[in-house]
Amino acid sequence: MEQNIGFIGCGSMAQAMIGGMLSSELVGPHQVMASANSEKTLQEVQSKFEIETNVDNRVVASDSDILFIAVKPYKYEAVIHEVRQSVRDHTIVVTIAPGVSFEDMEKAFEREVKVVQAMPNTPSLVGAGMSAICPNTKVEDEELESVVHLFKSFGEVEVITESQMDAIPSISGSSPAYVYMMIEAMADGGVRQGLSREQSYRLASQAVLGAAKMVLESGLHPGELKDQVCSPGGATIAAVSQLEKEGFRGTVMSGMESCSEKVKGMGE
What we know:
Layout: E1 5-8, H1 12-24, E2 32-35, H2 39-49, E3 52-54, H3 57-62, E4 66-69, H4 76-83, E5 92-95, H5 102-109, E6 114-119, E7 129-135, H6 141-152, E8 155-159, H7 168-173, H8 175-192, H9 197-218, H10 222-229, H11 235-245, H12 248-267
Parallel strand pairs: 1-2, 1-4, 2-3, 4-5, 5-6, 7-8
Antiparallel strand pairs: 6-7
Helix pairs in contact: 4-5, 8-9
């Protein structure tokens, strides 16, 4: 049985998810509807994905079996107040904003609602997303499976507990930005040593992609894989040594902590 998928909000994350779903052909354009404040955004989304759009959030809410609320955390209360009477009892509401708890959702809806907290990331657009999701107690196992199946259409999915959700933005939600910075830095290093900008980005990007694939498919500890590249007295261990002196790992972990603290602040 086909399900209707709704999106309230059409920012970059929503578009990444819509693009991933449609590219996988798990859902068709006729099953997806989206709303946004900006007419320009809606025109762009309609042209890009050939889906139905509407400026009225209530129309999207009333027509959706699975409803993604893809707005900024501070807008959640106002949006839910607007659509709460339009959301049907069987509808699964999926939140993708950090810091919005099940308790927050229930208070806003003023009734029990099926809610799934989710944290996807932008590589969903190319079918390589990493999403963490968490259902509340109103979501039945079969319903959770349908949501998991939907998220798997544009990447991998990890089902976690609500207490773990605050950690997810720092490790998979926001982390593509860290990796892009690393690729940019590696490319700058390549250019500095005489490679073209295009060559440098391609070489760095494929190296990062390959390293990640090695971790996922080999089953080996990242430290062991690192050791395999580091020959005694060689160039790689010299680079690793310098990165350690500059606090590479500690800096990444510190950045993640800052991200998590920001997420907790959003919830408050």
